[in-house]
Design a protein that fits this description.
about 375 residues, alpha/beta, Ubiquitin-like (UB roll), 4 domains, five-stranded mixed sheet, three-stranded antiparallel sheet, 10 helices, about 25% helix, about 35% strand
């Protein structure tokens, strides 16, 4: 694709160590680079695109008859930038056809981009083709830009990758449509791969978590299971490795779902007081054409506990009542999700927000703020 501003030809000469430039039009008229001059546009001709509104092109370019422009100057480059920004042209040239006194006659020569007349999808079933048509947003008359074919390839490839066909190949060929003026046909070719399954999910850095703060043996067992390697894998809702119990279940890799599942892993550690837990590194790599593996490296960090929890602005209910409803005591394992649940959205409506809203305080809001962190003890002030 070319953008040209042929309003002058440049001749650069070196004379006695000094450089200067001269701009020549038609061999008879010159523009001195060192002495810009102001001209009035006498006429602006539009060439090459009879299908477009020429008056609109003049307005968009800013090179309208009667306007004063400076040559050399920024007016021509701005005009080209404005026209290029419309994504309608593949080539732009601005020529000065003649100059009479202080008047200049311009010719904007444009090559219009091709339009899409239709598209075909090869290599897929009818049902898949119908779904692809819904996501690629192609239609007759759409302007073909440099990005359109690439974006189409990426969307179609992403459609199959979301379903686990990670190695699917997609190409878009353009064929001239002889039945239409300046129009092309998109031929979307799909070579569908085998579905790639997750052979293994490997967890590193997840040594035994200290759960001695829980009095109940059952609770220690339940919490321990949730943050064990197996518990982490089970907690990943949509990213599953192959196994004996999953013979008839799909074990596909989906990048979007995997990001969600990584967030779930951190939530599990947060729920047992490991507030700073993070995935410090992870990798998804190919084992063979049909299998991949995932390595997840975890840094658990230190354990935190709730300190004092105070209330500010709670004129309707006493702090004691709100403490009872909250059900969190000084020394309990810090669990931000539990705190938010008890403040905003408990499934059984046992939360502070429901208490107020059920009694007509529809615009009630509470904001928890961590006011102090001392030796892994986090104190909270709730502003109601």
């Amino acid at each position: 694709m070319k953008i040209k501003c042929i309003i002058f030809s440049i001749v650069l000469l070196l004379v006695s160590g000094n450089s200067w430039a001269q701009q020549t039009i038609g061999g008879n008229t010159s523009f001195d680079y060192l002495s810009p001059k102001t001209y009035t546009i006498a006429a602006t001709k539009i060439s090459g695109v009879p299908q477009y509104d020429h008056d609109a092109i003049r307005v968009i370019s800013g090179l309208t008859p009667g306007k004063e422009i400076k040559i050399p100057g920024d007016d021509i480059s701005k005009a080209i930038k404005n026209l290029w920004g419309q994504d309608l042209f593949s080539n732009i040239e601005v020529l000065a056809e003649k100059v009479i006194g202080d008047e200049i006659f311009l010719n904007i020569i444009l090559t219009g981009r091709s339009k899409l007349s239709k598209f075909k999808i090869n290599g897929v079933r009818k049902g898949e083709a119908d779904k692809i048509r819904e996501i690629i947003n192609l239609y007759s008359g759409k302007t073909i830009t440099e990005q359109l074919a690439t974006n189409t390839e990426n969307l179609v490839r992403g459609f199959f990758q979301e379903k686990g066909f990670l190695n699917t190949k997609v190409t878009v060929d353009q064929v001239s449509d002889t039945a239409s003026f300046n129009a092309n046909i998109f031929i979307i070719n799909v070579v569908k791969s085998e579905r790639v399954k997750i052979q293994s999910i490997n967890i590193y850095g997840n040594e035994d978590v200290d759960l001695t703060q829980y009095d109940s043996k059952f609770k220690r067992w339940r919490k321990g299971m949730s943050v064990s390697d197996g518990g982490i894998r089970r907690g990943m809702s949509d990213t599953k490795q192959q196994g004996i119990m999953r013979i008839f279940s799909r074990s596909k890799y989906n990048q979007t779902a995997y990001k969600r599942d990584k967030a779930t892993i951190i939530e599990r550690f947060n729920a047992v007081g490991l507030r700073d837990a993070e995935i410090i590194n992870d990798s998804v790599y190919t084992i063979d054409e049909k299998h991949l593996a995932i390595d997840i490296f975890i840094e658990k960090g230190e354990k935190y506990y709730f300190g004092d929890i105070t209330w500010v602005g709670n004129s309707k209910y006493s702090s004691g009542l709100l403490d009872t409803l909250l059900g969190i005591e000084n020394g309990d394992v810090f669990d931000k999700m539990l705190l938010e649940q008890r403040l905003f959205m408990s499934p059984d409506s046992r939360d502070v927000t429901s208490l107020y809203m059920d009694r007509g305080y529809l615009f009630f809001n509470v904001k928890p703020v961590e006011v102090n962190i001392d030796e892994n003890i986090i104190s909270i002030t709730n502003y109601a």
